[in-house]
Write a structure and sequence with these properties.
The chain has 9 helices and 5 strands, in the order H-H-H-H-H-H-H-E-E-H-E-H-E-E. Strand 1 and strand 2 form a beta hairpin. It has 2 domains: 90 residues; 118 residues, Cytidine Deaminase, domain 2. Helix 2 packs across helix 3, helix 2 crosses helix 6 and helix 6 runs antiparallel to helix 7.
């Protein structure tokens, strides 16, 4: 009888070879997850679990962005959860490095890629403020609220005061819609306009308010709402 551990080892060696020869696109989503799980349980066939996780969370991105408690409820051990969260952290750090390397407005797609990877699949709403210097370089990326934007404490005066404290010349507001639809709500628009007006009197520019979701993103400036 074949040793399942040996069979799994041979299969993973073939995955490694495909990855080395074909690059990131050589492996399917479930194969990437399969290999990540194998880091925690090296002598077990992780393909069935990888497939079930993709199905349960709906996509590779949703799986990587899932909260640890959700992964635990799905049956993952601490080691498996760590492997997945390390992969997420690595991907986000790589994407963020492209954002900080150049003026934000001239590397807009890099910023969108980073924001979507970090926020599009979150199950709770998060509000962030990106602070920029006079050269539009990112100087601080801060989480200012978690929860619903209709209920969360996103106060105009605190956003502006923080920009003054940091010496920000401009800011970009960002939040996600867990529903997946990135269309701005009336509350989103009203809050943004209040911050734009407050910043205008103090010489702080609001470049945009970007909303991300699983279905894409929206830019209030591109929509003519600023």
């Amino acid at each position: 009888m074949n040793d399942p551990g040996m069979d799994a080892s041979g299969h993973r060696a073939r995955l490694r070879k495909r990855l080395a020869e074909g690059g990131p696109e050589a492996l399917l989503d479930h194969e990437l997850v399969e290999y990540l799980l194998a880091l925690a349980i090296p002598r077990r066939d992780t393909k069935p679990l990888a497939r079930s996780l993709i199905a349960e969370f709906g996509s590779f991105g949703r799986l990587l962005g899932a909260e640890p408690e959700a992964l635990k409820r799905a049956g993952l051990t601490e080691g498996m959860i760590a492997a997945i969260k390390i992969a997420e952290a690595t991907a986000l750090r790589l994407l963020r490095s492209k954002v900080v390397a150049a003026p934000v407005l001239s590397s807009w797609q890099a910023l969108l890629d980073y924001l979507r990877a970090d926020m599009a699949h979150r199950t709770i709403e998060r509000v962030r403020v990106l602070h920029l210097n006079s050269g539009n370089m990112l100087i601080r990326d801060e989480l200012v609220s978690e929860g619903s934007i209709d209920q969360a404490a996103v106060y105009v005066r605190e956003v502006v005061r923080r920009a003054i404290d940091l010496g920000s010349a401009a800011i970009i507001l960002v939040h996600n819609h867990p529903s997946g639809d990135p269309s701005p709500s009336k509350q989103d628009i009203a809050l943004t306009r209040d911050i734009v007006e407050a910043g205008r009197h103090l010489g702080i520019t609001v470049h945009d308010h970007v909303i991300v979701g699983a279905q894409g993103h929206s830019s209030m400036r591109a929509l003519g709402l600023l």
